[in-house]
Amino acid sequence: MSDATASPPVGRSKLWQPPIVGLVTFVLMFVGVGLAHTLMVLIEHGLGRPTTLAISPLLGFIGIVMLWYGVKSKNESFQTWIGFLAGIIVWMCWVEFFYMWYGRENWGMLPRMDGVGSGGPLEVSGTYPEYMIMGSTVGTLLLMLCLYAFDKDTRCNMFLWFQDKLGLKEGLGPTTKKAQDRNYAIITFMETFFVTWFCYAWNLLTFDPALMGSGDFFIGINLASVFIATTWAGFCLTRLIQFKRTATALRYAIPVGNVAWVNVEILEKLDMMSHEVFIDPWTHTFEASVLFGAFLTLVVAILLAPKKPSEVGARAKRGEGVS
């Protein structure tokens, strides 16, 4: 494995300017969330569920090895890609597959049934055991997010906003880190992991019939979530389309794409749309192939796009090492 993103030309491009950079990275991450579901399905189908669950802890170490390699790199663009891919792999193996084993195999839990599914009484119409376990981790998630909220060295815009509104900046003191002190592999890895966790928890809470019921209140809460997710993602998108650096845009697009995807999960839950193309690629081979091909095309385009010197290991310019 090498710093593959160091090969593109360094400099400016008339094409890779706002809003193109932001729009491309947003579409890439939005589609990437769906294809992550497809990857999980393909792994489980290819290896078989028992084998997948048995070796998932070992598969997760692949992500850690990738992260270790990315941390050693001096190439910001390479660090960003490695951190993102490692975060996806670790989440999939050490959370989703592990919770699946723990809930289904170790505890013998049954799915939570909300009623008769659209495919008949044999279809699961509620929540699978792994997601029931995941829903119980909300307290841990909030605790971890509090640690970032009280971190004076954070550069996350959301946490900086909280620090400003809560009057924490004076008490926390000035940051002790400069842009060139930050390692974007671990930053992107943690961002990918926590954003994925947060969006899962969001959906699981609003889908919980014990909290939201099953009538008009349930529908109202979830439509309110659609409004919040659309507004939040839309606001962030207006910022994203102003970005000039592909590495920075990729990092910022991770939460934007995931928050926008919250709408897909909710609208499917309300039977207003379906994302079967991602979770049943065998039935939708053509559509899944087109989406995967488009995703790969965007990935290659970003990899080959001209990079600014600070993205490929040169000295970062003042004010550019953000997000």
Helix content: 55-70%
How is the biggest beta sheet arranged?
none
The percent range for strand residues is under 5%
Oligomeric state, counting identical vs distinct chains: single chain
Distance between termini? 26 Å
Output the helix-strand order: HHHHHHHHHHHHH
Mean pLDDT: 88
Rounded Rg: 20 Å
- Class by alpha and beta content: mainly alpha
Specify the overall morphology. globular
Please report the total strand number as a whole number. Answer: 0
Which regions have little confidence, pLDDT < 50, spanning 5+ residues? Answer: 315-323
Question: In the residues, how many domains can be counted?
Answer: 1
- Count of discrete alpha- or pi-helical segments spanning 4 or more residues: 13
